[in-house]
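User: For my dataset I need records formatted as: sequence, then structure tokens, nothing else. Please produce one.
Assistant:
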Amino acid sequence: MEALKNLIKALLDLDPIEVEVHLKNGEKISYSNDDSENSLKKWLKKFDLDQIVKIEFKYEDGTKISIELPCGEDAEEEDGEDEDEDEDED
């Protein structure tokens, strides 16, 4: 997880023009370059990475970087396992 935190910090240091954070509860929060970079970093520190499903970075040159965090994949796998259990009962 420490490597993931360092990656996110490095991407923030590249001064994105917009950052979208997708939370596990379905909420999506956007920050633009008008917002204080420090406030975004402080906000991200408030949340456990377990609560964040995806972070998207958009840069002035048109580059877009999207990071999907492991908690989103785990949730999808659990759903698939439930379906398999139902099929075994037949």
